[in-house]
Amino acid sequence: xxxxxxxxxxxxxxxxxxxxxxxxxxxxxxxxxxxxxxxxxxxxxxxxxxxxxxxxxxxxxxxxxxxxxxxxxxxxxxxxxxxxxxxxxxxxxxxxxxxxxxxxxxxxxxxxxxxxxxxxxxxxxxxxxxxxxxxxxxxxxxxxxxxxxxxxxxxxxxxxxxxxxxxxxxxxxxxxxxxxxxxxxxxxxxxxxxxxxxxxxxxxxxxxxxxxxxxxxxxxxxxxxxxxxxxxxxxxxxxxxxxxxxxxxxxxxxxxxxxxxxxxxxxxxxxxxxxxxxxxxxxxxxxxxxxxxxxxxxxxxxxxxxxxxxxxxxxxxxxxxxxxxxxxxxxxxxxxxxxxxxxxxxxxxxxxxxxxxxxxxx
Length: 362
Fold this sequence. Notes:
By secondary structure, this protein is an alpha+beta fold.
């Protein structure tokens, strides 16, 4: 995982790094003492903390030309004191936290701390965790400035040993956007922060969307969408059925994603919808192609299914265009908001057929 400087390396800390890490911790403690900061003291952090960080796999370093110049803890284990915050977190989803961040004296004021925090975001993205929480003492001006620069929001106070108060902050990590093959359009995983714009997009074209999407009538506010996204994001990434946003720039065009996944049998299903203004451009076709390749490459899915109401011709055109096989029709497969049962076509594509797309394109 490369950092912004081509000569820098970001990696997990190793036992052989402990002596150098301890030097950097000592430099940080000395600076805090000079500045009158009470962030750390003689007993914290101790070298035993560093050893335990590395054993737990939570210690990370930035190296410049093979020399450690920054150290910190990136953890997903939760922080017990955060449960007793005097204030309020925005949600109860899993989060990443950075502790014991220290920069070598010779690298201070060169953006190294920011670089470490951005790398922590990358580690978190790979785990599908989009909440980032940190805390710091009121007198730690360097960290407070960094937190502000990175877009964290103040949430309240937490208390550590000796009833020591710290300011607590959080931010939402935005998942990376990926091109789908149409200029200006991208796809990315949805986060809790997307609940309001998703609801507003649906609400604007509610009458059109509700014809084929029964869930629309039960979506009465952004809170309903937030509850849905929270239920998705609370599932560990390896078992999650991700929901993806289709965007033009930062404007929502539609959603696509997985549901009814069956991990033991390596199978899943894809669903999608698109706002009227964006139809007829091939957006969903390209998005479904991306999701099929993701499912095969990242989850080792063998069978991908799409179900479409027989009379929903634009929806049926997607799997047909991508070479899915029509396996049959479910009688009365879906109940629409009109109270009418409709038959649904069942399409599928297999891993070997998705893999053949790449061979054909080459």
